[in-house]
Specification:
alpha+beta; three-stranded antiparallel β-sheet; 6 helices
Length: 192
C-alpha cells in the first residue's frame, strides 16, 4: 500500500499541549523526515509525494501545488510546533462524522449491486480501515466520546488537512496575555 509509509497513531501525545491531543506530522529519524500516516495518505491523494512537503522553519508544513479532485490546485499550510506536531482538531464523533462501511464487504464476495454501491460510496475518497473491535483494545478518549478507536486520529488529521481546518498553537505573547487575564479574574473573584 503506497499510503502506508508513515508513522501511526502510536505516536499520539495526549499530554503535550495543555490537554490537547497532538500528533507528529513527521518524525526525524536518522536525519530523515518520516511522514505520519495521515500526511502520507493526504499527499498521495493530492497527487504529491511526501518528499514534496516543505518544512517552514518549524512553524508550518507546506504542501505546494496540491491537486484536489475536481481540478483545484493550491498550496496547503499546516501549522505545527517546533517538534513537528499538529493539534488534533476533533471535528465530529467518530460514529457520526465519517462514512462507515460494513466490514463484511471486505471479507466476502459481494454482489454486483453491492459493488456499485461500495464504489459510489468511496469514489474520490480516502478509505481507512480502522480496528474498532473490542478485541483490539486500541482505544482512546476523545472530546466526543470516552471510548473511540485510536485509528480515528488519522481520519481527523486527514480531515483537518484536506479542509484546512486547523487548531493552532498560541504565540508566547498571547499565552502571557491569557494567563494575565486569568490571574486578574481569579484575583477579582477572591477579593469580592
Amino acid at each position: 500500500l503506497q499510503g502506508a509509509r508513515g508513522t501511526g497513531h502510536a505516536n499520539l501525545d495526549p499530554a503535550h499541549y495543555n490537554g490537547w491531543y497532538t500528533m507528529h506530522s513527521y518524525l526525524n529519524y536518522l536525519g530523515y523526515h518520516v511522514p505520519s500516516y495521515a500526511l502520507s495518505v493526504v499527499t498521495g491523494f493530492l497527487g504529491k509525494d511526501p518528499g514534496d512537503v516543505v518544512i517552514d522553519g518549524g512553524r508550518y508544513l507546506n504542501i505546494p501545488g496540491a491537486r484536489f479532485p475536481g481540478g483545484l490546485v493550491k498550496d496547503i499550510h499546516i501549522p505545527i510546533d517546533r517538534n513537528g506536531r499538529m493539534i488534533i482538531n476533533w471535528t465530529c464523533p467518530w460514529l457520526e462524522g465519517f462514512k462507515h462501511i460494513d466490514p463484511r464487504w471486505l471479507i466476502r464476495e459481494i454482489s454486483p449491486i453491492e459493488e456499485r454501491a461500495l464504489y459510489a460510496l468511496t469514489a474520490d475518497s480516502i478509505v481507512l480501515i480502522i480496528d474498532a473491535t473490542t478485541k483490539g483494545k486500541d482505544f482512546l478518549s476523545s472530546p466526543f466520546s470516552l471510548i473511540a478507536p485510536s485509528g480515528i486520529v488519522q481520519a481527523h488529521m486527514i480531515n483537518s488537512i484536506l479542509n484546512e481546518d486547523f487548531l493552532t498553537f498560541p504565540s508566547i505573547p498571547v499565552t502571557i496575555i491569557f494567563y494575565c487575564i486569568l490571574f486578574l479574574i481569579i484575583l477579582f473573584t477572591t477579593l469580592k
